[in-house]
Amino acid sequence: MLFSTATGYALRALAALPADGTFSLAKDLASKLELPGPYLAKILQGLVQAGLLESVRGPKGGFRLARPSDRITVGEVVAAMEGPDAMAGCVMGFPSCGDDHPCPLHEAWGAVKTQVAASMTEATIGDLQHLDLQHRKEAARRHLKRG
Fold this sequence. Notes:
Blueprint: H1 5-16, H2 26-33, H3 37-49, E1 53-56, E2 62-65, H4 74-82, H5 106-122, H6 125-146
Helix pairs in contact: 1-3, 1-4, 1-6, 2-3, 4-5
């Protein structure tokens, strides 16, 4: 995996939040996504600090997207979770890798980084929600065919 488990959980949680702006409790999201509750709650708090989520305490509280899902990019989530330099540095871990002293994978990794960065700035949480909905519909159709 290119990014941490926490980043994957963050993307899944954001995609699972309702688009209508209603609040969801962390424990309900964790249950729905089959993720560890305390760990997800910590991730969601980090996303609040990054300005991607809003939170309200209390029985009618929880978490919701800070802006429409089609205005939050995957790249923003990755930067919030991994840091702004998540894709920087040498893929092989050499400290002096650069255009002047490239490692064996420098050129290839540079092309991959460019493509991944472009994809992450284009893909939104709304796109993930749409894909998730499609996958659920396909799974339901497969289940009906078998039954």
